[in-house]
Write a structure and sequence with these properties.
It is built from 6 helices and 2 strands. With 152 residues, it is mostly helical.
């Protein structure tokens, strides 16, 4: 019996946040995926202390992102490309939000209140009045044009 693709896909978000200990340790292991490292070695090569490195590695194993053999942690070679792409996506999201200008209208609260609706049923009184004035002005201009052309 066919199975819907939606039932086969994983809707779980990626369990690593940028600028977290998990991100730092996972990034290190992805970059150095040819080798396995102990938590102490990871701590020496990153900004993590030994306790944080140890707890972080346990969390990454629990989340299924890192493999463990005795006290050595490593990335499954078949997952290097996938994890590299995931980390790049996180980096891109961080860069996008850091690049948002402070004067961006959409970054201000209630910005949507200043934009008229495109739905005719939801148009504000102001936008309806503005549209009515534009229609009246155009009609008057057309009438004047017709009257002036009859005089010629």
């Amino acid at each position: 019996m066919p199975v819907p693709v939606d039932d086969l896909t994983d809707d779980e978000p990626f369990p690593v946040n940028p600028e977290s200990a998990e991100y730092e340790a996972l990034s290190f292991l992805v970059v150095h995926h040819e080798y396995g490292y102990t938590p102490q070695e990871i701590a020496v090569r990153t900004d993590l202390n030994k306790t944080t490195a140890s707890n972080t590695m346990a969390q990454l194993v629990e989340n299924g992102l890192v493999e463990q053999a005795e006290d050595v942690y490593y990335i499954d070679p078949r997952r290097v490309d996938e994890l590299t792409n995931r980390l790049r996506s996180l980096d891109s999201a961080v860069e996008l939000f850091e690049a948002t200008p402070d004067n961006d209208s959409y970054a201000q609260e209630d910005w949507e209140q200043e934009v008229p609706s495109i739905n005719p049923d939801e148009q504000t009184e102001t936008s309806v009045e503005r549209d009515s004035e534009a229609v009246k002005a155009r009609a008057e201009a057309l009438i004047e044009e017709v009257e002036n052309s009859d005089l010629d």
